[in-house]
Specification:
The complex is a heterodimer.
Chain A (H helix, E strand, L loop, with lengths): L5 H10 L2 H6 L1 H8 L1 H4 L2 H8 L20 E7 L5 H4 L4 H5 L7 H4 L21 E4 L4 E4 L3 H5 L4 E8 L5 H10 L9 H9 L9 E6 L25 E3 L17 H22 L2 H24 L6 H7 L9 H13 L4 E6 L8 H25 L6 E6 L3 E7 L2 E5 L3 E6 L8 E2 L16 E2 H11 L9 E3 L2 E3 L15
Parallel strand pairs in A: 1-7, 1-8, 4-12, 4-13, 5-6, 5-7
Antiparallel strand pairs in A: 2-3, 4-11, 8-11, 9-10, 14-15
Helix pairs in contact in A: 5-13, 12-13, 15-16
Chain B lengths: L1 H9 L1 H4 L1 H17 L9 H27 L6 H25 L3 H27 L10 H7 L4 H6 L11 H13 L18 H6 L16 H7 L18 H12 L8 H4 L3 H11 L11 H15 L2 E4 L7 E4 L9 H6 L7 E5 L10 H5 L6 E3 L7 H4 L10 E3 L7 H7 L7 E3 L7 H11 L2 H22 L26
Parallel strand pairs in B: 2-3, 3-4, 4-5, 5-6
Antiparallel strand pairs in B: 1-2
Helix pairs in contact in B: 1-4, 3-4, 3-6, 4-5, 5-6, 9-12
Classes of the chains: A alpha/beta, B mainly alpha.
């Protein structure tokens, strides 16, 4: 069963007489409609667990630039006015009432119904590289890659609290059950690797990284669960128990897997549930990961110079640095989508010490990742996105800043994105993005991200409960200007 | 007064639609009135409509005359449009008189004549504004043949492939570009700015702003100057709304003008510099580039089978074209020269080829040498050496080459100089010295294009400075002497 066989499906449909149907109606209600409702190619994926899923799209809609993506998710909301978007006017107003004309009638998170005072940025900024991009001196290593990254200052989102904002950034919706962007990519293009998951999530540990991020952020939603993100442990072994127990060798293990697959096949014959095939393919993948994961996690092959570049003190210590290095190794091994979460950007108070701390932890590894990809030639077809789920207010909140959705900054690099470009802008206080044709809503970011893979975001759709769904819902505009 | 005439003249394209609408509506009513169930026009209504129609036609014709007097348009197309426009107005007035005299027998034929004149005048008016081939260029080829229109593709195909010994720089290279991009507004039929670009002789005459060429100064020649102005500049050609010349077309025109804008000189005699030769090969099919585009269906069928057999990733790059991306990286050392040789079957369709970390050697690269469409090649961490890079030189379309972690040395770089399109080269952890890499980068950069922009920026800066603040001290008027480069040579880099 290397490929989908339509006659086989017809065989199933014919075999179901009225009597059988009535007899099995309890379990059959859902599956009856399957043959017609389910996209035949999706069914093919489920029907052929051994064959690698190669994506629902037979070919990209237009010429792709990217083959892989690394999303450095700075969870908590980095402060744009302190890092990428300096505002002299805000510094001038420091400590004075924030102009009401900006904030009147607007939704705020914890600052609602309080006296709003402007907070200037205490940090200095520099023009960096040939391009002269402006980057905060808090990020000295990011400054060295100024000519390789495109800073987007006009990001904006719709959700003001962490969990829904993460969901919005990942799925384009706050409603549960929508697939994340990594799942959409796997669904659309598949993955090159057949011995590692195509969508892997790593969460770094470290001081200040205490805020939880829900696993629903990398869920596949209504897409089959084989497309969901797989979270690796960032500390110690990425996956536990990959070794065989004493007395079991790989050939025995192989026999077990094959036997389970055969038994699952019977149930699949009877019920036509694609989730069974998901399970079968996961067993197969897990078997392959018994060899691929130890090899992946073995950082001893990395020279000291590379460890120093990333600032890895102890390989596999769960730090952001270690995860960035792991991310590079993952995409070298054919993983389509790697998502690194670093928590600890939620600075409602103590902005100065905590922002310095988190910058110290993330600046060097993120810049090293771009440099390392570049020197290996991987940056040509790897998209790197750095950014949070929202930004932070130009208004002060005690000694910190509150959540802010009307403007925040991210950067993108690689995959034909024009390095050294600053895209979009905000008003003089960094409160709101300007409508200058370069505004970037989360939907626009998704559309642009898919475009780097050659996917027309309006054409990657999945029909579910009678409606066609896509990552960008009914929105999204590709920021064509950021491509070189 | 002059300005008023100008203003009124420019109302012509607006007003002209009134008589068209009124007279056509009248004709429609008369036609429909022959059908018994449709209300017929009363004599009074008919007269009233005709008064409006005739007056509108007269006004439109008058405004059109004012517009033509401004001299933006000339040529046979204008003459035809003008004549037909006047005739239409005259016919409308005649129709009104006929109606007034109740010459019912003459009325219907004259109305028909008016409508025919009106349609013809309208058609030529449209052709005047949008270009003669505005409609016909979109017709299916079969209809074009019936109408006697020469399809653009066929016109070009006649000149392929181009033989340098006999092909003419003007007739076969420069002139087709002008024909395609300029002649619709600067031709015999429509002549804007008193300038015709449809023949070499006409170009020598220049336009209302003067000569097109300035001997020994390519960038100063008006023909090139106008093409290089910023897109939103008033005098930029072609105007913003029209199809633009490509960078290659511009280079070819510059080459022709730079060589003295000759009428009769073969490509071989003009000795094209490498970048021009490359464009010529690309556009007119040199011997190496005459290969046909592979058939997508056949390629994909082969590719799928090969991908499965070799266990490598082969995907189409696009939904329409047959181009493929091939990656053998995950097979690591299980993929070697023997497996690579099997890719020869789909070789002409491969755009991206990733052989990084495989066991491919110099010997295997012979297979790659035949993959003429290759855009991106990854050979990182393979056993490839300088000797193997000789196989890469025929890949004239290669844009990106990854040699990271190979034993390639500075000597290997020499071979890469032959790659005209190479834009990105990765040589980390090789024996290539930074100095040699730097030198190659400098050599491969299109300095000419950068200089063109630098000149443009400098000129704009001077202009803006002078506009903002000009100081005259009366002390320094240094005698600036700029030596023009000898004919045929470009300005030296600063």
């Amino acid at each position: 069963m290397s490929d989908f066989d339509p006659t086989n499906l017809l065989h199933h449909q014919r075999a179901w007489s009225r009597r059988t149907f009535l007899g099995k109606s309890a379990q059959a209600i859902g599956t009856l409609a399957l043959g017609s409702l389910l996209d035949s190619r999706l069914f093919a994926a489920a029907a052929a667990p051994a064959a690698r899923w190669r994506g629902i799209l037979p070919a990209p809609h237009f010429l792709p630039r990217a083959k892989r993506i690394i999303h450095l998710c700075m969870a908590g909301g980095p402060s744009h006015v302190d890092l990428f978007d300096p505002k002299p006017e805000l510094n001038r107003l420091d400590g004075q009432p924030f102009p009401e004309s900006f904030t009147k009638g607007q939704q705020l998170a914890q600052l609602q119904n309080t006296v709003l005072l402007a907070r200037g940025s205490p940090y200095t900024f520099s023009r960096c590289g040939l391009s002269g991009q402006i980057i905060s001196d808090l990020l000295p290593h990011t400054q060295t890659i100024a000519d390789d990254i495109c800073i987007v200052r006009s990001m904006h989102t719709e959700q003001i609290n962490h969990d829904p904002a993460h969901a919005f950034m990942n799925t384009g919706s706050i409603i549960k059950g929508r697939p994340s962007m990594g799942s959409w990519l796997l669904y659309g293009l598949g993955s090159e690797a057949d011995n590692l998951p195509g969508y892997i999530v790593l969460m770094s540990n470290g001081p200040g990284a205490d805020q939880p991020v829900s696993a629903r952020q990398w869920s596949s939603g209504f897409l089959p669960s084989r497309f969901q993100g797989v979270q690796f442990y960032s500390k110690g072994a990425p996956v536990h128990y990959v070794g065989n127990p004493d007395g079991v060798c790989q050939s025995t293990q192989r026999q077990v897997i094959d036997e389970i697959a055969r038994l699952n096949g019977f149930q699949e014959e009877a019920s036509l549930d694609p989730e069974i095939q998901t399970r079968v393919s996961q067993y197969e993948l897990a078997f392959k990961m018994q060899t691929s994961v130890p090899e992946l996690a073995d950082l001893s092959s990395e020279p000291q110079s590379i460890l120093d570049l990333y600032g890895v003190k102890q390989p596999g210590d769960g730090s952001f640095a270690s995860n960035c290095l792991l991310a590079r190794r993952l995409i070298e091994r054919g993983t389509r989508f790697v998502q690194l979460y670093h928590r600890g950007w939620d600075h409602h108070g103590d902005l100065d010490p905590r922002l310095r701390q988190v910058c110290r932890l993330t600046d060097q590894p993120a810049a090293a990742l771009v440099k390392d990809l570049k020197q290996r030639g991987l940056l040509e077809d790897t998209l790197v996105i750095w950014g949070g789920e929202f930004g932070r207010t130009p208004m002060g909140q005690g000694s910190g800043r509150d959540h802010h959705i009307n403007a925040f900054s991210i950067w993108m690099a690689g995959a034909g994105i024009r390095g050294g470009l600053t895209w979009g802008s905000t008003d003089e206080l960094g409160y709101r993005f300007l409508k200058d044709g370069q505004e970037m809503h989360v939907h626009d970011l998704h559309a642009t991200m898919l475009a780097t893979f050659g996917i027309d975001h309006t054409k990657l759709v999945h029909r579910y409960q009678g409606r066609d769904f896509r990552l960008t819902d009914v929105h999204g505009r590709v920021a064509t200007g950021i491509f070189a | 007064m002059e300005n008023l005439a100008l203003f009124l003249g420019r109302l012509h394209p607006l007003v002209v639609h009134l008589p068209i609408g009124i007279l056509l509506l009248l004709a429609l009513f008369e036609l429909a009135g022959r059908w018994s169930r449709f209300p017929r026009l009363g004599e009074g209504q008919r007269t009233a409509v005709l008064v409006f129609g005739a007056v509108a036609a007269l006004v439109a014709a008058g405004l059109g005359w004012l517009l033509a007097e401004q001299g933006d348009f000339s040529g046979s197309l204008l003459e035809r449009h003008q004549l037909l426009g006047f005739l239409t107005a005259a016919a409308a007035v005649a129709l009104l008189i006929v109606q007034g005299l109740r010459w019912t027998r003459v009325y219907a034929p004259l109305l028909t004549v008016t409508v025919v004149l009106l349609s013809a005048a309208g058609h030529y008016g449209g052709a005047l504004v949008h270009g003669e081939d505005y409609l016909t260029s979109l017709l299916p080829a079969r209809w074009q043949a019936v109408l006697g229109v020469e399809p653009a593709a066929a016109a070009q195909a006649r000149t392929l492939p181009l033989d340098p010994a006999t092909a003419q720089v003007f007739a076969d290279v420069a002139h087709p570009i002008l024909q395609q991009r300029c002649v619709s507004c600067h031709g015999e039929a429509k002549t804007q700015g008193d300038l015709r670009l449809d023949s070499w002789e006409a170009m020598l005459l220049g336009g209302k702003h003067g000569a097109l060429f300035k001997p020994g100064d390519v960038a100063g020649s008006r023909l090139i100057q106008r093409l290089l102005l910023p897109l939103d500049h008033e005098e930029r050609m072609p105007p913003k709304t029209k199809p633009q010349l490509s960078e290659e077309e511009l280079t070819l025109l510059e080459w022709w003008v730079g060589s003295g804008a000759p009428q009769l000189r073969t490509v071989a005699q003009a000795a094209p510099p490498p970048e021009v030769a490359e464009i010529l090969a690309e556009r007119f099919g040199g011997s190496a580039d005459a290969e046909p585009v592979p058939d997508r269906g056949a390629v994909l069928a082969q590719a799928t089978a090969l991908g499965e057999r070799l266990g490598i990733e082969i995907r189409p790059l696009s939904a329409e074209a047959p181009w493929l991306t091939v990656s053998a990286r995950l097979q690591l050392k299980q993929f070697g020269d023997a497996q690579l040789a099997e890719l020869a079957a789909i070789g002409p369709a491969i755009h991206w080829l990733d052989l990084g970390e495989t066991a491919v050697t110099d010997a295997g690269l012979a297979t790659v040498a035949a993959m003429r469409e290759l855009r991106r090649l990854q050979l990182d961490r393979t056993a490839v050496t300088d000797a193997g890079l000789a196989s890469v030189t025929p890949l004239s379309r290669l844009e990106s080459l990854n040699l990271f972690g190979t034993a390639v040395t500075d000597d290997g770089l020499t071979a890469l100089k032959a790659l005209p399109r190479l834009r990105r080269l990765h040589v980390w952890q090789t024996r290539i010295t930074p100095a040699a890499a730097e030198a190659l980068a400098k050599e491969q950069t299109d300095a000419r294009r950068i200089r063109r922009w630098e000149d443009e920026i400098a000129a704009r800066e001077r202009m803006i400075r002078a506009e903002q603040f000009e100081v005259t001290t009366g002390e320094t008027f240094p005698a600036v002497k700029v030596a023009f480069p000898p004919p045929g040579e470009e300005k030296a880099a600063p």
